[in-house]
Amino acid sequence: MIYSIKYKTAIIKILTIFIVVFIASSVFSQTGIIRGFVYEKETGEPIIFTNVYLYKTIYGAPTNVDGLFVISKIPAGTYTLMVTNLGFDTLRLPVTLKTGQMLHKKLYLSKSSYLLPEIQIFAEKQAAKTETKTSVVKVTPKQIKQIPSIGSQPDLAQYLQVLPGVVFTGDQGGQLYIRGGSPVQNKVMLDGMIIYNPFHSIGLFSIFDTEILRNADIYTGGFGAEYGGRISSVMDITTRDGNKKRFAGKVGLSNFGANILFEGPIKKQKEDGKGSSSFIFSAKNSYLKESSKIFYEYIDEDGLPFNYTDIYSKLSFNSNKGSKVSFFGFKYTDDVNYKTLSDFHWDATGGGTKFIVLPGASAAIIDGNFAYSTYKITLDAENSPPRSSEVKGFNMGLNFTYFLGKNQVKYGIEMLGFNTNFEFHNIDERVINQEEHTTELAGYLKTKIIKGKLILEPSFRAHYYASLSNFSPEPRLAIKYNIADVLRIKFAGGYYSQNLIAANSDRDVVNLFYGFVSGPENLQDEFDGEELTHKLQKSQHLILGIEYDLFKYMSINIEGYYKNFSQLTNINRNKVFNDSPEYSDKPDYLKKDFIVETGNAKGIDVLLKYDYKRIYVWAVYSLSKIDKYDGVVEYVPHYDRRHNVNLIVSYIFGKKLNSVFNVRWNYGSGFPFTQTQGFYEKLIFEDGINTDYTKTNGDIGIQYGELNQGRLSDYHRLDVSVKQKFEISSNSTLEATLSITNVYDAKNIFYVERLTNKRVYQLPFMPSIGLNYKF
């Protein structure tokens, strides 16, 4: 207890020092600051990641995800402030800055009728030279719409599957595995709120409506100290505000489902106004279970058993100087009814607030969030006992960012608490259950230093797990060196920890049920002959990469990575004894609810990108290998896909450039699986020792082979889509989309039923059509 208090006190002292530095720097600054926002003139939506700079000087800065820019340490003088962005007219604004003065500017860009690819390429090259960008991809709705939209509904889940290092295990009940990490090791945040399950059971769709997204930062490894509580990857998703100028919306309809969106101002934004407020509401619903009986009867006469409903709403309030606060809430549901399942269902609800404060006369940002959510999942199977899992809790954070010219300092605190309630029966009818309350507290410090061609981003996170009385110090570092104008090398690495555990075994190939537990008590005390000193899951990342601009519009990015999972926790599928005094002589791995494992993931990802005028090409090749060891057996997990290829081509055509053709081809080598050696009669002994085994009829038992020594056949699929947009008026359009999933009807294995040897395949040839009306 004294140990934990000392570290909490140290965190508070560090934050106090930086607040003092923050205030002192603001008071004694001998240069000027230009701070402000860049908005779309038509909608009032912030324009993200665009360059704002002083013409013919070295002073400039990109806008962040809120459209905010801060240019600090500017000598007094008269300048021309410029903003350039693809699809908008270039903005030039004369400004005069005095010593110690801070100018606040709200800049509005008007849409241009001319495409300016050179400006876009310039912006990307500038960002490549000033940001480390190791193992991170920034995703916008525009990019999501550049791949074939399955069911005529562009979705983040479909786009994530084409990213370097991402492995997707199936169209039905599939999960995303990122550079060797299991789904529970991937942190997903929506406007700062922790999301426990971002994907529906039909793995083609996420819970997020593409139309409400502003940006998603996908970190596949080596992320900085501002993120914690996960040991593999991070998805940081930001939603946009509602239209601040007029009422607008969208209605979509396809043979997969329907969606609606409404947005508009509560108080309209004006260029010289005192503030604004807006709302946005979206809902989408799948009726595939019913519609598939009409359109896809050849797949299954009983229909495809996937239905879901997603509802999201948000209110945003903006001050004249840019400070803002937003309130949001959601309800997501998912239902599946396979022939072999009686019922599968999960439900997620939540809400929260997020705010940004811009202190006067300071090159700083203060932002924070608070959110509360619940997630409950249940599975009632015909041939096995039911499973259930529930997690509910809150998370909150407060962050300070200070701009020192091209350099930055960022620090903050984070706190979260959640309850987990889990019950599960393994194949030997042994009950594994746990109810636990968890509290975590963390503080972090991160700096960005640019020295000539070198960019340094050292950071440190201090994470305290109160329920386990465990403190985890986590140093991290990112580096980039600009060797030449077209050639850059980069590195990222660090230490990571987490407490949350999946309430299922990652040895299961087909797994709809995905619940959660936290820091289990019933865990072995030793692993591989050594005493365990903590109950956390931990990993260490090392990533080395190179970026090379092959031509003006073509670039290649190569990254090699190594993730050492020094301690993992897995549900014990081998439990055959109760952990009670009469079995004290039995080894832990036969009686504990949870077991400890180690593992590592290594690989190389190659990304080739071409983007010019009407043609966009994205080509990815990933080579990886994953190994695990449970103290007895060395094995490869079921998601160990050695080779993975994604090729995307998007072409814009037509006189008014209103037509788009998209194609995606994916190839993946076969997944591992455990083979069946034989069958036997399995006696249950319902009456214990009084059971007459000579007269009792047993069940069919399966004798399994060595763990994951088999390999399924290779996976490959071609998807295409054609979109046509019709301009109805200045503010309304109709878009028709024809898409085909699995064009050449590849027979990709989903799983094999062990008792009947029947093969169940992934989705076959599936055409779809959809209409979207925007107004």
Pick out its properties.
775 residues, mainly beta, Immunoglobulin-like, Maltoporin, Chain A, 2 domains, 5 helices, globular
Give an overview of the whole structure.
With 775 residues, the chain is mainly beta. The chain has 2 domains: 31-128, Sandwich (Immunoglobulin-like); 136-674 and 709-774, TonB-dependent receptor, beta-barrel domain (Maltoporin, Chain A). Helix content is 7%, strand content 55%. It has 5 helices and 47 strands. The strands form 10 sheets. The chain has a 22-stranded antiparallel barrel. It has a 5-stranded mixed sheet with strand order 8-13-14-11-12. A 4-stranded antiparallel sheet has the order 3-2-5-6, covered by helices on one side. Strand 2 (51-54) and strand 3 (60-62) form a beta hairpin. It is globular and about 95 Å long. The N and C termini lie far apart (59 Å). Residues 20-28 and 115-122 have low confidence and may be disordered.
Percent of residues in helical segments?
under 10%
Shape: globular
Total strands: 47
Could you give the distance between the termini?
A: 59 Å
**How many structural domains?**
2
Q: Runs with pLDDT <50, length 5+? A: 20-28, 115-122
Specify the biggest β-sheet.
22 strands, antiparallel, barrel
* Secondary-structure content class: mainly beta
Annotated CATH homologous superfamily of the largest domain: TonB-dependent receptor, beta-barrel domain
CATH domain class of the largest domain: Mainly Beta
Q: What is the correct CATH architecture of the largest domain?
A: Beta Barrel
Strand content: over 45%
Rg calc: 27 Å
Overall residue-averaged pLDDT value? 85
